[in-house]
Amino acid sequence: MYHFIINPKSSSGRGIRYWWIVKSELDRQQISYSATFTKHMGHATELTEQICNENPGIKNIVVLGGDGTINEVVNGIPNFSEVLLGYIPSGSSNDLARSLGIPNDPIKALCNILKPSKFQYLDIGKIDFINMSTAPRKFACSSGMGYDANVCMEVQASPLKRRLNRFGAGKLVYIAIAIKQLFFTKQLNATVIVDGVKKDTYRKILLVSSMIHKYEGGGLRITPDASPTDGKLSICLVHGLSKLRTLILLPTIFVGKHVKFKGIETFHCSEIEIIADDITAVHTDGEIPAVCSHIKVQCIAGQIRMIL
């Protein structure tokens, strides 16, 4: 039995279009499955919890949606050892699929799930929001504090993105908002503690990205050396740069060359704590769970058993 969780509105309706293609193939092969559709933010978490609680033994859960839907599902799994996770990407960014080489074609992705040749145990991240009532949040692909989270927050609220997604041009909104937020994101001063040891107090921080995979934001190679199986977070910390210099360096992120420039630090760790002098947005897989000033991020090794 395969349990499908479908976000029909992912990428402005691509989700539901892909589902009818997938459903037709499942029915043709007479595959046993259940299918539930997400109806509101957080619903995929609720559906995942329900599937896990009502079905004994190993659960084959297949997500048809984007990185945000994957994030919700990961946060709904109470016991990762009892879940096999499949993914049919239908979002606008699909950074997890890009990192893992999962096909964008729904039939090819489905075939990999129905006749798997490879499984991989993937790390996940977890964020604790210190001195806040917000519950800890897991993430599958990426998280960030500052600039990248502000971009995510504005993109989520943009009606233009939803319209352009219908024509496959949603990335234009990401680019436009990314340029705009370079000039509007407030830079922070913050103390950074790495694996329990104070690393430094930084001035004029633009962002701190804590990554499991290489990509975020629809193909931006934030941490080119990231591995989802090394038990480590890959950190990109940008600080001390003028807005003009940051704008000039922005295109280099697409090919991962930004890490060669002064003011951009990358390193690996098991845990990072950030204590900023002001509140700012925080994202997990492109979703915004909190606006705060103090977070602790850790890597939890080998949690997701993913069908590739």
From TrEMBL:
GO-annotated biological processes: phospholipid biosynthetic process
Residue ranges occupied by any DAGKc domain in the UniProt entry: 1-131
Cofactors demanded by this protein: Mg(2+)
InterPro entries: ATP-NAD_kinase_N (IPR017438), Diacylglycerol/lipid_kinase (IPR005218), Diacylglycerol_kinase_cat_dom (IPR001206), Lipid_Phosphate_FormReg (IPR050187), NAD/diacylglycerol_kinase_sf (IPR016064), YegS/DAGK_C (IPR045540)
GO terms assigned for molecular function: ATP binding; kinase activity
SMART domains: DAGKc
SUPFAM superfamilies (UniProt xref): NAD kinase/diacylglycerol kinase-like
Keywords carried by this UniProt record: ATP-binding, Kinase, Lipid biosynthesis, Lipid metabolism, Nucleotide-binding, Phospholipid biosynthesis, Phospholipid metabolism, Transferase
Family note: Belongs to the diacylglycerol/lipid kinase family.
Matching NCBIfam families: YegS/Rv2252/BmrU family lipid kinase
PANTHER family according to UniProt: SPHINGOSINE KINASE, SPHINGOSINE KINASE RELATED PROTEIN
Full protein name: Diacylglycerol kinase family lipid kinase
Species of provenance: Variimorphobacter saccharofermentans
